[in-house]
Amino acid sequence: MTPILRAIACAGAGLWLTLAPALAGDAPQQSARSAAEIMDILMWNREPVGGPFALTDQAGHERTDKEFRGRLMLVYFGFTYCPDVCPTDLQAIGLALDKLGRDGDQVQPIFITVDPERDTAAHLADYVPMFHPRLIGLTGSADAIRKVADAYKVYYARVPQDAGDYTVDHTAYIYLMDRDGNYLGFFPPGTSADRMVEIIRPRLVAPGR
Ligand code: NI
User: What is the domain class of 3-201 according to CATH?
Assistant: First the structure.
């Protein structure tokens, strides 16, 4: 599979039990730019990656990027109904944090949904603890999600399925941000926990414990 297909492989087969309600107003449900354009930007560092956000976590509390200053952030965009790529990558993130041990506290894992309509805070509360106790799941309005996805150069788009159902195509990079919230780089989908540890550990204070 080409890297491009691999990166947007999250829209797989899946039967959702709940049907999507009618779209609220004309809220944007996808990236303004194409997947190819966004991947080109990311690959060649053509534009800054990341930026401020104010979203709602799985407990219903507002969280902003600013509270994570002083920690590295591992930021991942996906959706909870994703059948394959999202759970695999989230498992790798959780495992990497475990492997980092106590030093892993310096890393904040964050999952931001690209399907805010279905991924409510309550729904995220059932989902994120499956991967790591410290994983924060974030949702928000369609506008807020599109803004943060655009800032992180994430491509996502709804793909209609039978009976009014839909899935979401999306790029699945794992972003590593520094203690000031600046972009360091990305891990491609399918990166192993060991590889993440190898890259992250030298950036921790007092590494190697
Ligand atoms: Ni996915």
Answer: alpha beta
